Amino acid sequence: MPPIANEEPPLQPCATRINSIPKEAIDAAEKHLGDILSMAMEHAHPQAAVVVSDARCELALALAEGYRRCLPNARFIDFDTVSAETILAAFDLLAPGDLVVLIQSTNFRLEAYRIRVELFKRALKVIEHPHLARMPGPQALYYIESLAYDPAYFRGVGNALKRRIDRASSGVVDSGGERLVFASPFESAKLNVGDYTDMKNVGGQFPIGEVFTEAQDLEAVNGRVRIFVFGDTSFTVNKPEAPITLVVTKGRVSGVIDSTPEFDKVLANIRADEGEVWVRELGFGMNRAFTRERTVSDIGTYERMCGIHLSLGAKHGVYNKPNFRRADTRHHVDVFAVTESVTLDDDVVYRDGAWQV
């Protein structure tokens, strides 16, 4: 799940040229985006497309160039040089099944207009690339690599994981000597693998690569888990010098070993609003461009990292639990487990940095 709020970092100076991203990476972006358009989005001429982008960071410029090569007939709009009314008018000309691409150094705001939600209501296909300014230099290259679309891997492994999760009665995450035990069946797993067959909405935030669920009985989650990255109070990746160990009792964080001041602040914020710190989402990240060593600063992008992530806090927009009132849940903070292995029932489904299904 993406972060639930947004605090934007200072923008880079307006970029007019792509200096730090090599031509080979832009060529790769063209290839990856072309595959997303044809295989995941199933977009083809004469379907119309509108691409709204800005020029505030080099990664945004690189992606815009990739889309220009892939969508020669699309309408391209510079977000910073036109009015909100002009952009909305361009959307009004589109028909159901047409495409909108949003390339955002931060996160576009059109007054009270919630862009993706409204576009989906119109049955438009949507590709979002948000928070690109958070990923400069080498991170931009990781991001471009993460856009590679391998349908055999994403759809094959993703659906195999879903089938295995949906029939499991328990699971264990081994984070190197510490075990977090899910002594409960899981909620029906959701896929983010670029397959929108039979789905109401087509598209979403890219890059993709995730299967997620949570325990049907949250209080059946107990044990310890070592985390090496967490989303901090600015919703960016925070990597402490050494992993932090969470002690989980009846689905709640009951203790922390080797914490840091910033992580203490995250927990304090959750407790101040919700009283206790629940462990909810169990995410099976699949994107092989991101690893424990290859990180990007944007937590919503890094969430696809190949391995396990969890959410802290009572908020989860997909799974409703009777003991949580939606109005009272405020936090969904992603944390990333040191993942040595993952077991569902008696089957090892993750080992040696890869899914084994």
Characterise the protein shown here.
This protein has 357 residues and is an alpha+beta fold. It has eight helices and 19 strands. Strands 5, 6, 7, 9, 10, 11, 12, 13, 14, 15, 16, 17, 18 and 19 form a 14-stranded antiparallel sheet that branches. It has a five-stranded parallel sheet with strand order 2-1-3-4-8, sandwiched between helices. The longest helix is centred in the N-terminal third of the chain and has 18 residues, at 23-40.
Name its key features.
single chain; 357 residues; alpha+beta; 14-stranded antiparallel beta sheet; 8 helices; disordered N terminus
- What Rg, in angstroms, do the CA atoms define? 20 Å
H-E string: HEHEHEHEHHEEEEEEEEEHEHEEEEE
Shape: globular
Please tally the helical runs, counting DSSP H or I stretches of 4 or more residues.
8
* Integer average pLDDT: 93
Task: Give the structural class.
Answer: alpha+beta
Q: Low-confidence parts lasting 5 or more residues at pLDDT below 50?
A: 1-16
Strand content: 25-35%
Helices and strands, with pairings:
Layout: H1 23-40, E1 49-53, H2 58-70, E2 75-78, H3 84-92, E3 99-103, H4 115-121, E4 125-129, H5 138-146, H6 151-167, E5 171-174, E6 179-182, E7 190-192, E8 203-205, E9 210-213, E10 221-231, E11 237-238, E12 244-249, E13 252-257, H7 261-274, E14 279-285, H8 299-302, E15 307-312, E16 333-337, E17 341-344, E18 347-351, E19 354-355
Parallel strand pairs: 1-2, 1-3, 3-4, 4-8
Antiparallel strand pairs: 5-6, 5-17, 6-10, 7-9, 9-14, 10-11, 10-12, 10-16, 12-13, 14-15, 15-16, 17-18, 18-19
Helix pairs in contact: 1-2
